[in-house]
Amino acid sequence: MSQSSSNSLDMSRVRADYPILADVTYLNLGTYGIMPASAYRNFESLLSDFEQKGVANTVNVNGKANTTRERIAHLLGASPKEIAFTRNATDGINLVLAGLTWQAGDEVITTTEEHEAMNHPLLFLQATRHIVVKRVEVSPDPAVMLERIESQVTPRTRLIGMSHVTCETGTRLPAKEICAWAAAHSVPSLFDGAQALGAFPIDVRDLGCDYYTSNGHKWLCGPKGTGVFYSRLDKLVQLVPAHVGAGSLAWVDIHTSEVELWNSGLRFEYGTRAWALYAGLGCSLDWFDSLGWGSVYGHIASLSDYAKKRILEQSYLQLLSPRRFDDSSGLVSFKVRGNVSFEIGRALREKHKIVVRLVPHYNAIRISTAHFNNEDDVDRLLSALKTMVLGE
Description:
Helix content is 40%, strand content 17%. By secondary structure, it is α/β, with parallel strands linked by helices. The protein has a 7-stranded mixed β-sheet with strand order 2-8-7-6-5-3-4, with helices on both faces. It is globular, with a radius of gyration of 22 Å.
């Protein structure tokens, strides 16, 4: 493998912390990330302590979880008060969609490449609250996206809800320009960052979004069941929590029936929570910190460029993702001309031990150029495809 794509990452050290890579070419971090072995051992230790000792535990799991909150806030360029822990990115989308007050005929503008995390709650609102959902084609070009959005806007537009990076083609939307447009039109903006957080630098204040949601189990390689939600503090009060319990209220008087929600992300957290999972996400963040985020981001970008270059060299493949990394991400989607993606994906897994993700909408294959992947992984994929398609 050429070392030019390592961007100062010690790939032998990185890959050594992922034993599965000795047996499987794992190109699907965009669905499920996998924890580094050393981070998992630390997570397993604190989880064991918490689950087997309860309140007599010797590790301050709650404190570690709240430290994770601070670190997530730092990664997003936000304040810890603006961060709520959730189970996944879908939770954050629902906090917004269920937290706003809807009238029949209210409109939401979204895209044609949304994950079920956005699509399903919108379809539910459409069926139950009779809102109108408008979908636009995606483009990384700000002028194109704004023109498409403006073609759909009416006085009834209540929300712009889109992916920062689309799950199907890995297109990075011009979120900053969209948020500026939304703010100028007094329309709240919600971005799904499931395929963005941990893949490239994010600054929610620079983006100007009102709400941002993501998870810990993809590019951050944390425990499954960890999610994060960002809300600007001044937009927080516009959301009415669908669920409230112990932990949601800053002040309560049972005698006068007076209550006051926290003026922070804590208003969305309640009851017994999975503190050990969020502390475990901190274990993964420790590991990434030891590598250096700049090196991680650089490696993902470089390998993404390499994968696209190799795909474009093959006449039997059609690249769907934008060529420039700044217009895309660590997701690379392509079609195998004249073939069914389901059959290709199954053969890759069963015959070659290569794990990819299918994109049924486009009859395409999607790979993730993760920090633990290398050029050999990409070459192995293309060699397997060549064998299957051309018989060589």
